[in-house]
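pasting for the record
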Amino acid sequence: MRVFAFFTVACMILATSFIGAQESGPVVTDSSRDAVVVAGPKTKIDRGGPIDLTKTPWLVESVNVPAGSPIFNRERLLWADPIAFLPNTEAVGPEIVVEKWVNEAPKHEELAGKYLFVEVWATWCPPCRRSLPLLNHYQEKFGDQLVVVAICEAAKNKEGASLDLDGTLTSIKNLANIEGTVKPEDVKFHLAVDTGRRFANKLGVFGIPHAVLIEPTEGVVVWEGMPTWIGYELDDVTLGKYLAIGAKQKAVGKIPEKPPVVFSVQPVGPDDRNERPKAQVKYEGERCGGE
């Protein structure tokens, strides 16, 4: 029965993804102001060609690969191991571990019956900071069907060395002094820190921001990527189509009372890595590797 339910969800959402890719427009966070621009459904998407590093030099650091890597020859970056539509036990797992919650942790009753959007990010990453207004927008607009969580990895000092938990918490507080992002006191989503990168490493994330959308029946990842990447972002129209599937399943009693994915707080152990892995990811049949 669980296998049948998994494939039913996968087929329904794959169809939704195709439709969304044809109809939806981009959602863009503007770095000059705390705003989210939601494009109309008929907006033409310019998918461009290979990534121009002269226009996006931050990618070299954020993706953790050399500038000459063949990954930049692709139109889209998937900065993690592809896990969409894998069974929950092979992908996310029943538990996501964090080191500390900056604000209130999501309760089990809040997670039950709702989609879960989880983004991994860092304070030193400009596109990560620019994505935070979008997370606020998701939580405010879709909060009755969606739980939004952002997990911050270790901050860095001026020399580029990773900071500990206290240093990372201080870095988050300092976001109040940076334009184009969300001040800590204005955060509407659930915000956590994990300097051990345990969830990010489990997903094989080598570039940030990276996010996954998890459906509420089997805990399957139905969308993955950078939520603000132009032409491939998770916009209002596309997200709404995913959530509509959940609403239909809930109406016929197919949503379990217990959430398939929950959170726990555990200290970072000595064997937990806080470094991002080099790029070793398969995408559309190819393999990319950083040096």
